[in-house]
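pls design
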């Protein structure tokens, strides 16, 4: 007997953390070398209008030592819903330790700090080695040129791996559409070489894991990729951009 399962396009995601996420994995050329940094530009073109959390981030792995994510949030715990997060998990699942941030945090969260980002403005997210075993998360407002260090995370990894970007949405699948744009994907090697990924791999959180079926990632004609919630899915799971 077969059963029809309706695609999830309404209501809150029933995932373990209450979010529906979709990702763009970076495909790097073979033999690129060890990565010392990764960066990308993010613009929130159409911001949220509901009180639920949205998180857009650049994620990197610390081989053998965990992974972390740097990005901005629409977060009602922070003034004007503006926040930035640089945090992650060690290989054993514990939170990565880090230095104190120079940015304030209204809820006193060491990972998530107050940051008054603005829609329709590009921000450069950059993760790079600050010292041995120390990895810095930095955000630059490309309109004003102002760069801020969120803080340094402690991870005993000699290099970075597996860069990707994602949208993590804690809102209802049918809440008003939100649009963000990713562009200028770049990694830097220990030798100082800079290059872009050769392709981006599209991934959506599966229905069984609580994902919404009405999210999509679509390339634009200027070399960027737009991620949209509550929209028709134009790019299928597993496609490359």
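designed seq:
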């Amino acid at each position: 007997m077969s059963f029809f399962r309706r695609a999830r396009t309404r209501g809150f995601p029933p995932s373990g953390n209450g979010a529906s996420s979709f990702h763009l994995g970076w495909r790097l050329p073979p033999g690129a070398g060890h990565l010392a940094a990764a960066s990308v530009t993010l613009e929130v073109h159409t911001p949220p209008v509901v009180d639920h959390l949205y998180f857009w981030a650049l994620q990197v792995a610390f081989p053998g030592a965990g992974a972390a994510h740097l990005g901005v949030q629409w977060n009602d715990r922070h003034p004007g819903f503006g926040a930035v997060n640089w945090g992650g998990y060690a290989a054993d699942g514990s939170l990565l330790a880090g230095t104190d941030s120079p940015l304030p945090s209204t809820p006193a969260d060491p990972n998530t700090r107050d940051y008054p980002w603005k829609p329709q403005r590009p921000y450069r997210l950059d993760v790079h080695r600050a010292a041995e075993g120390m990895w810095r998360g930095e955000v630059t407002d490309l309109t004003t040129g102002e760069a801020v260090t969120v803080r340094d995370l402690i991870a005993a990894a000699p290099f970075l791996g597996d860069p990707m970007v994602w949208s993590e949405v804690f809102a209802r699948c049918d809440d008003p559409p939100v649009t963000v744009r990713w562009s200028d994907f770049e990694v830097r090697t220990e030798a100082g070489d800079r290059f872009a990924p050769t392709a981006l791999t599209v991934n959506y959180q599966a229905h069984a894991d609580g994902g919404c079926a009405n999210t999509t990632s679509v390339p634009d004609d200027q070399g960027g990729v737009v991620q949209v919630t509550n929209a028709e899915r134009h790019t299928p799971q597993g496609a490359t951009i």
